[in-house]
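Key result, reporting period 2: structure in, sequence out.
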């Protein structure tokens, strides 16, 4: 006798429920893209999509074909106990596994506040301007380099704003049009973030845990690709700033409003190296990221005379800096606690995506690099190419459809995330602040930033294919021979 369950599957779904679920999942993916592009809350959006994908992925097993289930062991649940174990993995174990990332973010934010409190960051900027003199292009070049170096260690909206209120008035008082000043500063911030240990820890958590691939460290990544990506973005930003400046008319509208006469105490010259200490220790010695922040942070506080009070007062200062730093990153924390849930459920949804996209999605590294380079604009507005938008959904599809190495995938998504979103997009918090602060129209900023995103992004994808892709490495070795 034929069971009712079999008849239901055979007559209503034709035994191919996985195709129906795959199409629905694809539609929800585009729905998530629209949600992110519309500027809605990312934490809530990823929580909702996690629940939807959980229901669809688990429910789809009730009507999927036997062949589909046989090929996907992850979707074979051992009764109610197996379902509960999978749900616990999504909603409990996954967020718990991101503890390391959150700790790095919080300590990095504290270190950024220390550099601001001690005046080290502002002193670096002022000394750089002195070297540039009254030559705008020389000053832009030097400020871009120093800003990129600063943001290899500092991160978050608070530090960017703190440096921005120093750099932007200086550039505009030299006659640099405000849109070009904005573009140049934001591009150099993004360049430094390519080897920022906090951002690296944040992004790598999308792909693996440290236990899965312990050799993929910041030091390995920086020497293999990170430095190259940083230099490419820094150079293209500086060159385009020069081109834009040559075509524009200088304006000194900000000269009268810039407080250049106020005397600010400089930090001791020997403390100016401290911003890069955590990065150097991590890359050269593979030393603890947090340990580097603690060493450099307390060294800065002592050497700059900020710890001359009583023990209680010093404790209060350190506590306040930590509090302010955590507040800077608070919006990010909620997102980071929700995102791993989505990453985990994506592994259950991936077999359905593979049914729909498996035959059409590029499996060749060169084709994938070309496709991502062409679609760089989709990294804007929290689009499906950026990890701080709905790119996590795209990553979930790519990771489970193709057989690509983790370093290659990391670079593939880091370019639209950092070069495009962080450095060029008006939805980035500090870019939005800069637009309001300088009174630059968003369209005027995008006219400058989008060409740079494409020039730098294309060059970075060339570097990705050659330095991290297996096909590129093989081609390079054969060319050398």
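The corresponding designed sequence is given below.
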């Amino acid at each position: 006798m034929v069971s009712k369950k079999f008849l239901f599957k055979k007559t209503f779904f034709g035994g191919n429920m996985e195709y129906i679920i795959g199409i629905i999942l694809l539609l929800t993916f585009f729905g998530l893209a629209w949600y992110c592009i519309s500027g809605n809350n990312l934490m809530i959006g990823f929580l909702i999509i996690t629940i939807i994908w959980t229901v669809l992925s688990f429910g789809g097993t009730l009507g999927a074909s036997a062949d589909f289930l046989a090929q996907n062991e992850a979707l074979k649940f051992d009764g109610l106990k197996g379902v509960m174990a999978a749900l616990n993995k999504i909603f409990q174990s996954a967020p718990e596994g991101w503890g390391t990332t959150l700790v790095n973010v919080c300590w990095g934010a504290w270190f950024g506040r220390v550099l601001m409190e001690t005046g080290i960051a502002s002193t670096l900027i002022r000394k750089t301007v002195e070297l540039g003199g009254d030559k705008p292009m020389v000053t832009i070049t030097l400020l871009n380099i120093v800003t990129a170096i600063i943001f290899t260690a500092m991160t978050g909206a608070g530090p960017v704003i703190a440096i921005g209120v120093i750099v932007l008035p200086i550039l505009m008082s030299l006659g640099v049009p405000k849109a070009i000043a904005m573009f140049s500063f934001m591009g150099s911030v993004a360049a430094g973030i390519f080897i920022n240990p906090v951002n690296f820890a944040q992004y790598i958590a999308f792909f693996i845990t440290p236990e899965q691939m312990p050799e993929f460290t910041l030091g390995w990544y920086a020497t293999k690709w990170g430095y190259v990506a940083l230099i490419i973005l820094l150079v293209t930003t500086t060159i385009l700033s020069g081109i834009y400046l040559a075509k524009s008319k200088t304006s000194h509208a900000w000269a009268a409003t810039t407080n250049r006469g106020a005397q600010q105490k400089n930090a001791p010259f020997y403390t100016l190296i401290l911003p890069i200490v955590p990065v150097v220790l991590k890359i050269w010695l593979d030393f603890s990221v947090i340990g580097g922040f603690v060493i450099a942070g307390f060294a800065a506080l002592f050497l700059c005379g900020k710890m001359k009070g009583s023990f209680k007062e010093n404790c209060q200062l350190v506590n306040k800096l930590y509090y302010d730093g955590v507040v800077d990153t608070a919006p990010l924390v909620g997102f980071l606690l929700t995102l791993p849930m989505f990453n985990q459920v994506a592994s259950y949804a991936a077999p359905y995506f593979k049914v729909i996209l498996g035959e059409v999605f590029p499996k060749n590294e060169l084709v994938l690099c070309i496709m991502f380079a062409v679609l760089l604009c989709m990294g804007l507005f929290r689009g499906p190419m950026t990890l701080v938008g709905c790119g996590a959904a795209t990553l979930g599809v790519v990771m489970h459809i193709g057989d690509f190495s983790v370093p290659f995938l990391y670079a593939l998504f880091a370019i639209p995330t950092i070069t495009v979103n962080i450095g060029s997009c008006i939805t980035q918090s500090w870019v939005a602040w800069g637009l309001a602060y300088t009174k630059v129209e968003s369209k005027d900023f995008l006219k400058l930033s989008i060409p740079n995103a494409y020039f730098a992004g294309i060059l970075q994808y060339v570097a990705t294919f050659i330095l991290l892709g297996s096909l590129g490495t093989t081609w390079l070795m054969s060319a050398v021979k």
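The longest helix spans residues 311-357. Confidence is low (pLDDT under 50) at residues 1-14, 252-263. This case is discussed further under Risks and Mitigation.
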